[in-house]
Structures are given as structure tokens and as C-alpha cells.
Amino acid sequence: MQIGFNLPNSGPLSAVADMTRIASEGEAMGFDYLTLTDHVVLPNTKVPGYPYSESGQFYEDAPLERHEQIVGMTWIAAKTSRIRLVAAVLVVPHRPAVLAAKMLATLDVLSGGRLVVGIGAGWLKTEFDAVVTTPFEERGAVTDEYIDTFRALWSEAEPRFAGRYTKFDGIVFEPKPVQKPLPIWVGGEAGPALRRTARVGDAWYPIGSNNKHLLDTLPRLKAGIGRLRKAVVDAGREPQSVGVSFRVKRYGTAVPPKATDGERRLFSGSEADIIADFRALEEMGVTAIDVDFGGRSDAAAVLAEMKRFRAAVIEKI
User: Rounded to whole angstroms, how far apart are CA atoms 196 and 279?
Assistant: First the structure.
């Protein structure tokens, strides 16, 4: 199982020196990958509407300053040498398909083949209205077509595509990504995300705390993985050909211990409980887990918690 961490690219910890320090020292600690999130603009974050917390509030106070995801990942690639770089997740409709494919291919080349493209259709309509040229209501269809566009550009010697949102022929797209194929982790917890994963994903990449599609207990996550395996078979692929990556937004005492199904919430409780969760998820077929160590005052505090967590939990799995 691979273990990663979220690299803050918003709020006070997004200062260049802090981002660089957390990334480089996280790499030195032995983490397998780091993640960066994707927002271009945000509404007033004091207004509830965030889908991944119990209250609907953002976890941090108004992280209004934010670096663009792909540029931020490229900067971090230049400051590291081994750690993998996961887009968590790229909101696919945010950028024109051919431009995004080029940016991602360039990042994979410049990083020496360390990119993982986590993808999602997006959820924040206010942001879409400001950034995206395709309709918010069509974001699922746009995402599916853009992914097919990416694959054509990344793999075909003479790429051509004729879709509803993207059309091209007679073009040269070089260099191709180093990785063949460039791995895609599909974010989202609902049926469309599972079907998208089954069709094109190398891994499913859910967050357990989505209030509409909770995967926050062992039975709920096991059922979700069961639905994934069925969708993969229905898509004509081998059920074990698609991995499962899992995002942990909060852990320990920050997580209410009991879920609405009466079961203990994943990654709540003591260090022994959290170690048991890591082991249980690995047995269920989870291939990667990343942890968010943010919400702390400065880079030193984040790094101290990362070191403590590695010693207390990860090294005992």
C-alpha cells in the first residue's frame, strides 16, 4: 500500500517556502506521494455548501489565496526527485481539453514520469460560472469526453478526435507522457464516478465523508468497493485491474466516533484504531491512502505531525 499526504496549496501554508519545505521533507520521510487540490476561484467560504464535512463548512477558515494546481505541481516537481505527484483532483472541465492534455503531458515529462492524474467532474457551480465555458449541467459528459481526448492525444501518433466539445485532426502532439499509460485516478463517490472509473480509471479515488454518499465506516466502504467491482466487470474489465485509493480528510479525535449507520467511523479513535483501519482497508483491496495533515499553524507544526504520525501509525501497519 502506498501512503501519501496532502500538500496545502491554499491558505497560510501556501507560501512558497512552506510548500517547498513540506514537500521536500515529506519526500525525505519516505512518503510515496503528495497531493494538490484544484480550485481556480472560490465563493465566500463562510457560506455552507462544502460536501465533504458534516456541517457543510470548509475545514479551514476562508482559504481564499490558492495556487493553480498544475503550475503548483510543476513547481514542486522541480523541488523534489522521487515522490509521486497526484492531482487530487483535477476538475476536468476547468481547462480546455487539448491545453490540459498538453500541460499534464509536459508535467509528466519534466517530473520524470511521476504524475498521477486524479480527475473529477466538479461540484462548485459558482466556480464553474466564472471559469468554465461548457454548461455546469453537462459537466459529467464534458469530463468523459475530455478524458477520451486526453487518451487520444497521449497515445496516438496522429491524434484525431471528433466529439461534441472537442474536435481536432492533422495536429502534432509531442512529447507524449513518459508513463504509458499516464495513470488516472477517478474521484467521486456516486454512480457516475464508479461507472467512469470502470470505463477509464486505473483506480477509484473517493473521499469517505461525502454526506450524500458516505463511505465512512468499514461496511459502507466495503459495499462501495463491491459496487466498483461490479461496475468494472460490467465494463468488460477484470475486477482486480482497477485499484482503490482513499483520501483521509480528518483522523483521530477530530472525527466523531460513531457514524449514522451505528458503526465506528474510519480513522477515528486511538492510534491502535487507526492502525487497524489501515490494515483492514489494505485487506479490502485499497492500494493507496493519503492523509491531510493541514489545519495547523505553520509548516513546522505540519511536519512535526507528519513525523509523529509516521512513527506512531505508518511504521506499525
Answer: 27
